[in-house]
Amino acid sequence: MEEEIRKKHHVREDLCTNRPKYRDGRKLRAIKVYTINQESQYLLVQGVPSINVKTELQDLFSSFGEILSCERLENYPTEEFTEVFLIKFARLQSARFAKRFRDDYNFYGGVLHVCYAPEYESVDETWTKLEDRRKSVIRRINLIERQAQREREEAELDASAAAASGDAASGSSETVVAAEEDGARFSEDTPVVIELPEEFFFPSSDDLPPAEHYQHLPPPPSVGQAVPFVYPSQLTNPIIVPHDQRLSNPLQPSSSYMASPR
Question: Any residues with CB less than 8 A from the CB of 118 and at least 6 apart, and which?
Answer without folding.
Answer: 37, 38, 39, 40, 42, 126
